[in-house]
Amino acid sequence: MLIVVVPLRLLWDALCWIGRHVLAPVGRWVYRWILAPVGRAIGWLVQYLIVVPLVFLIRYLIVVPAVWFYRWILTPVGRALAWLAYYLLVVPVRWCYRWVLTPVGHALAWLAHYLLVVPAVAVWEYVLWPVLRAVGAAVAWAWRIAGYVSRAVGRGIAALWRWLVVAPLRWVYRWILTPVGHAIRAVLWRPVRAALSAARTAAREVRLALFG
Question: Which of 3, 176, 189, 202 is in Cβ range 3.0-4.6 Å of 185 for a Cys bridge?
């Protein structure tokens, strides 16, 4: 086991010593005197060959012309359009509304009131409402009369029913059906009841004789 581990440990210690005493100083020297100056040079080139020209182009080819265009073209044109819209649309519309539409609307409202509303109210108040009230009164009177007639007809029908149906049926029940029922009960019911009683007695005696 030591034959394998000791050479590996010696190799590891040698690599660590080379890294600390050879590679690390060489890396620091390369970074300090080669990589850092090259990086600063590249950053300076990027700053002054790409960023500064690009910012200059964007500022003087896009931003400054856009500001100038907005200030000296869009703003005056917008103000001119606003002035034209105000004096060619708003003022005429306001004048038309005040001096044309408003008087015409008042006149139409006056005409509608005195040509439609007032006649309609008068017709309703002096024609339709009295007619409807008279018709309603006539209907109510006729309904009351019809109630009197209906009650009289009902009383007549009830009297006829009593005299033509109820009284004969009552007479038939009292003077025919009742005596016939009494006779049937006296003649038939008593023998039938006696026979039934005898049959029940015989059945009871048979059951006692068979089952005790």
Answer: 189
Question: How many CA atoms lie within 13 Å of 58's alpha carbon, on the beta-carbon side?
Answer: 6
Distance CA 38, CA 30 (A): 11
What would the pLDDT profile of 167-211 be if each residue is shown by its tens digit? 888 888 888 888 877 777 666 666 767 777 777 777 677 666 666
**Using CA atoms, how far apart are residues 105 and 96, in angstroms rounded to an integer?**
12
Side-chain-side CA neighbours of residue 205 (13 Å): 6
Select from 116, 138, 145, 115 the least CA-distant residue to 130.
138
Distances (CA, A) of 140 to 133, 145, 153, 154: 10, 9, 20, 21
Burial call 108-130: b when 16+ CB within 10 Å, e when fewer: eeeeeeeeeeeeeeeeeeeeeee
C-alpha 139, offset from chain centre:
47
pLDDT score at 16: 80
Q: Is the dihedral of CA 192, 195, 199, 201 positive or negative?
A: positive
DSSP assignment letter at 212: -
User: Which of 108-114's residues contact partners 24+ apart within 8 Å by CB, and which partners?
Assistant: none
Between 6 and 164, the higher pLDDT residue: 164
DSSP 64-89: HHHHHHIIIIIHHHHHHHHHHHIIII
Report residue 164 as tokens. 């033509």
